Amino acid sequence: MAEYSVSSISKYDRTALSQVDALLEKEGIKRDRNLDYTCGVYDEDYSLIATGSAFGNTLRCFAVSSDHQGEGLMNTVMSHLLDFEMGRGISHVFVYTKAKSAKFFMDMGFYEIARVEGLFVFLENRKNGFPSYLENLTESARPDGVSGAVVMNANPFTKGHRYLIEKAASQCDTLHVFVVSEDKSLVPFCIRKRLVEQGTADLGNVVVHESGPYMISNATFPSYFIADEAGVMEGHARLDVNVFKKIAGVMNITKRFVGDEPFSAITSLYNRVLSSELPKAGIECCIIPRLEEDGVPVSASNVRLALQNDDWETLERILPPASLDFFRSEEAAPVIRAIKQEKDVVHH
Fold first, then answer.
1. pLDDT at residue 2 tops 60
2. Which of the listed residues 130, 161, 176 is the one where a domain comes to its end?
3. In the chain, what is the straight-line distance between the N-terminal and C-terminal CA atoms, in Å?
4. What are the φ/ψ torsions at residue 171 (nearest 5 degrees)?
């Protein structure tokens, strides 16, 4: 390895990135849409022979040239990326990889969380990471009665979210609401969770949880090993089911509630996968019609658009009191500023 070097690749280096794309393509994958760091291993002629990338706490997009298989280059890339993650304060790291490559990562000290058979595997570098998360959840499990669940991003919490939770709670003895903890939304997680808690405080059978790093949003699900957008959504939904089945198993959850999405073919596909796969695990998938205002479904996208346009009349109609109070407070100023600076607030 003395003649090889590993270095970071700038997102502005088109030449290097074209080499990355070519190397990934030979492995039947494409560069993921969500990356914040990429590295490459180069030979003495400065030709790219191995690559890997990161996004937040996940490692993605690995490839080694067929001419250099068996030289330990993947270990070199992994070590570099783990050092990089540690350097930015991230010690709990996750990997999404093709099923055929899972053993390599397990040999490198990663542990399986869940898999979509024949497609990909979701792993972490902590043996007790997911088991500990499940163990902590059991403290709020209810052994008796009907337990249900809702998973939401709530970016931010709207009257639509409140409506979904209220309808779901009326069909359960206990409703567990999981707020996606991943901090990639325009409204930070700590605020999203607080608004959900405040907006449901009057519902005595609702328990709000952090999703931890085990439920991620559609926006950041890795796409590099799946050919099209519908396939990405289906892959995410199937992984979601397989992670959720383990959560439901330790919490006695027998119902999962999702909001209907009449205008999004992709989200409808997601709901169809949940409706097909959850019953196989003994979990009923209940689709709740969306709350509408003046014939328009209430959505977080509409809230963000209204904030961009200083449309407080709309905000007063579609935000519950706690959310409305927040956006009128000084604390909300940086959040509103970030929303106004975002070019497209509809799909984030």
1. no
2. 130
3. 43
4. -105, 10
Element housing 32 (H / E): none
Whether 347 is in a domain gets the answer: no
- β-pairing verdict for 147-152 and 174-179: parallel
Read off the DSSP letter of residue 225.
Answer: T
| Spatial separation of the C-alpha atoms in residues 24 and 320, rounded to whole Å | 47
- Assigned token pair, 333: 């100023």
Q: What's the predicted TM-score (pTM) here?
A: 0.89
Q: What is the pLDDT of residue 293?
A: 86
Range of the domain at 124: 5-130
**How many domains would you assign to the chain?**
2
Question: Is the pLDDT confidence value at 1 over 80?
Answer: no
Q: 52 is written with which tokens?
A: 């890997």
The side-by-side arrangement of strands in the sheet containing 253-259 is: 206-210, 174-179, 147-152, 253-259, 284-288
Per-residue pLDDT at 261: 76
- Residue 119: pLDDT band (50, 70, 90) is confident
In three-state secondary structure terms, 96 is strand
